[in-house]
Structures are given as C-alpha cells and as structure tokens.
Amino acid sequence: MSEQFSPEPALDVPIVFVDLETTGGSTSEHRITEVGVVEVGPAGVSRWSSLVDPQQPIPSFIQQLTGITNEMVRGAPTFESIAPALFERLNGKLFVAHNASFDRGFLRSEFRRAGIAFDPDVLCTVRLSRALFPAEKRHGLDALVERHALVPSDRHRALADADLIWQFWQRLPALVPLDVLRAQIERTTRRYRLAGDITEDLLDTAPAGCGVYVFYGEEDAPLYVGRSVRVCQRLRSHLTGERRSSKEIRLAQQVRRVEWRATGGELGAMLAEAQWIATLRPGQNRLPRVTKSDPEDAPWPFQGAIVFEEREDAARVFHVVDRWRYLGHASSLVQAAQLHASSIAGPFELSTYRILQSHLARGLRVMPLGVPSGAPASSTESSLV
After folding, report:
1. What is the gyration radius of the CA atoms in the chain, in angstroms?
2. Each residue of 262-292: pLDDT tens digit?
3. C-alpha to C-alpha distances, 283 to 19, 227, 287, nearest whole angstrom
4. Where do the domains of the chain lie, and which CATH numbers do they carry?
5. Are 89 and 39 in contact (CB under 8 A)?
6. Residue among 323, 320, 326, 319 nearest 302 (CA)
7. What distance in Å separates the CA atoms of residue 224 and residue 217, rounded to the nearest whole number?
8. 116-119 contact pairs (CB < 8 A, 24+)
9. Signal peptide: which range, if any (predicted)?
10. How far apart are CA 288 and CA 279, in angstroms?
C-alpha cells in the first residue's frame, strides 16, 4: 500500500526523487551501479531501486564508500535491460536530485546508449537549499541531514539517499513561506523538456562561437532573431536557463523550431542578425525605424564587391559585401570569390548600409574582392558617401 503525503508545495506534475551510485565521476568512462527512485504523485508515494551491473570493476574506495561490491552487482541487470521500465517510471515527472547535474548526466548518457532520449525538467536540491537558506555555508546531503533532522537509513545507497531528498522536501513548507517556496522552486528548476523538435542533442550542435539564431513558433511563424558570441550557450539560456526573465519564459513557451548560422565574428553576426530581422520580420523583435533621412538606395562607393576580415579564436573569416548587401562569410578569399559569384542580385539593405557606414567611419579596413591574400588592406574612410 502506497504512503500518503501532504501535497504542499503543490506542483502541476508528479515528482521523482532520484539518486545513483556509480563506478566514478565521468559519464563517458564510468557506469551506474545502483538506481533509487522515490515517486510522488496523486496516488501517494512509492519506492523503487535496483542494483545495476556496470560491466566494469568497481574501484575499491567506492566499494568502501557505498558498500556495493563487485560480487553484489555480478548477475544484476544491466542498465540496458532496465532502461525501458525505468524510463516509463521517470518520464513526464519533475526530476529532483542532490547535485542533480551528476545524476541527470549519468542517466542521460546511459539512456542514450540504450537508444532512448532522456531530457527531464530538473530541480537540484543543492541549488534550492542555497536559494532558500543563503546564510548557511554547507548544502551537502550530510549538512541537510544535520540541519533539518533528516533520518538516514543507509547513507550512500541510492534509495536511502533518494529518500533523504524526499524528507528534505517535506520539511520545507514548515520552514519557508509557501509563496516564496513555490517561487524559488520555479526559479531553480531547469527546463530541459523543450518544445517541438528541439532537444538537448540538437542544441549541442549549435555553434560554440559567434552567430545568429531565429526561433519559430506555431505554423513556422518567425518569433525572434538574436545574435551572440556564444550561440550554443545563449540558446540554452533562452530555453533551459534558470535566470530567465518573464519575457524570456513566455518566448520559450512558444518556440517550436530553432535555426542558426555561424558567422565567424561579431560584426558578421551583427550584419546577419539585421538582415534576418529585415527579411523575416519576427514578431518579438523591434524593427528599426526608417527616418526621412534614410536613403531608399545609396551609391556604392567601390568598384566592385569588398571583403573584410574578422578573427574568431585562431580562425580567419572573410565577409563579403556588394552594393550594400551582405552576402555572408567564407574561410578564404578564394571561397569568398565563389560566394560572390554564386550570389543573386537583391535589393538595397538599409541595415547593412547603416552598420557598415558606422564601422567604415571608425576605420574598418576592407579590400576589393579578388585582391590576393596577403595584399595590404585599405582604409575606406575617405570613400564614404
């Protein structure tokens, strides 16, 4: 018969309190030896645990810490064999763990090896404890046991430690005003369950450096265009970050698809962002104001297309502009010429005109496309219109 529980602090989804024991700290090198789950939902509380054969030796110091020996896991199920049932137990529930990035990271890696995508929303009780009790210096599980009179049954075993996290959760409504507690839970929870076709694995493929990105909503309507010097990190902040504004949270809830482009530099990102905003006209970007002094077209002050160089880390990129149209970037002057040759004539881009006028006035050095690599670039300050 399942244990009944107080529903406070009430959440919209069931909760699982999870703890793991492993052969070490690396998700690529080490494996899980035990899983413990305390599941809390409308029907009450249920507990589940299993030893897991890691298919590798358990180091002696970890055997001493956990009490789990090589003999104990010999003949236990492999993770792959329990993966489908464990996924059903965890899927769709808020994943709560102490040092949650460790437990989530190991489970995500093990599920991936079993061919299952695992991206739960996660609440770390270390972070929650720090947020709720900032005057305290220690927030490890032993500190929580001492501070909140938790009752350990078998420390460093998965189910027993998962139960300690559940005990801590039960103590909180008596220690913190409910509205504060709910607000901190919402603020601390990391939302990994992304909308549409966006997954953690997809975000891993986003550029680590400079680039632009666009969010699309229902019916592929453009929502927002942005740029960043760290695109992958910025996307995670938008979609899964803890310190998001209410505006960012509302935006993330509407996103169904994301597209990005590496730009190889900050000025390239600025040009590409402005170009995308002008073309896509996304609903949550402020469109640049057109004034009476802005030209509908402008003379091109060069004899042909130009390139300018940016560096990102050790890499060189060459940006191509022709008649106030930004054509993109290439990794060499030869590729820049090919990019120009394959481009199709387009309309005057006011955004490109504005950005380049500003940077040319500050001494941006450009050269005509077709100048051999290594030839001196020229400053175009005197050629401004």
Report:
1. 27
2. 998 999 999 999 999 999 999 999 888 888 8
3. 43, 16, 9
4. 15-188 (3.30.420.10), 200-280 (3.40.1440.10), 306-383 (no CATH)
5. yes
6. 323
7. 9
8. 116/83, 116/84, 116/87, 117/199, 117/200, 117/201, 118/87, 118/90, 119/192, 119/193, 119/194, 119/199, 119/200
9. none
10. 12
